[in-house]
Design a protein that fits this description.
Strand content: under 5%
Oligomer: single chain
Subcellular location: Chromosome, Centromere, Kinetochore; Cytoplasm, Cytoskeleton, Spindle; Nucleus
Helix content: over 70%
Family: Belongs to the DASH complex SPC19 family.
Biased composition (Low complexity): 102-118
Region (Disordered): 96-133
Number of strands: 0
Shape: rod-shaped
Number of helices: 4
Protein name: DASH complex subunit SPC19
């Protein structure tokens, strides 16, 4: 009986060694398992969508953006019109001022020559002064008419713009 017991103990020890060897082999194979899970995990970088879904999204964006774009375009157009009107007004004012400068320049030499001629032309000096006053009055009236014309044009534009907006 001792011999059979000794054979059982030897067989049990051999089984334990095989079991230990199997456990260490499994540990070696499983120790890298978390890294393998991470490596083998699939990551979607780009998601494929059906074409109708993409078209719906595009249309939604278009519907959302179109009113804003139209509003911004109208604001820009209004601003350009304002700048154009201002440019026209400034040009008209510059022309008027240039005309005034030219008329003043042409009048100054004549007034100097009249004052240099002295006493014999006092009567014509009074006429020249009257003529200068009349020319100045004419220039003022011309300027006022141009200003009123510009204001009338501006009001017409505003009226057309308000009618177009309705």
């Amino acid at each position: 009986m001792a011999a059979s017991l000794s054979a059982s103990v030897t067989s049990l020890q051999s089984s334990l060694q095989i079991l230990d060897s199997s456990i260490s082999t499994l540990e070696a194979g499983v120790s890298d398992f978390p890294r393998l899970c991470k490596v083998l995990q699939t990551t979607r970088h780009f998601e494929l969508l059906p074409e109708p879904t993409v078209r719906e999204a595009q249309q939604s964006l278009l519907d959302e953006i179109t009113p804003s774009i139209a509003h911004l375009l109208s604001l820009a157009s209004n601003h350009v019109e304002k700048l154009s009107r201002r440019e026209q007004a400034l040009r008209a004012k510059a022309e008027l001022q240039g005309g005034r400068l030219n008329s003043n320049d042409s009048r100054q030499p004549s007034s100097r020559s009249q004052s240099a001629s002295g006493d014999r032309q006092r009567g014509s000096a009074a006429k020249a002064a009257e003529l200068r006053r009349m020319v100045q009055k004419k220039e003022r009236l011309k300027y006022a008419v141009e200003r009123l014309e510009l204001q009338g044009k501006q009001r017409e534009r505003q009226l057309r713009k308000s009618m177009a907006a309705q």
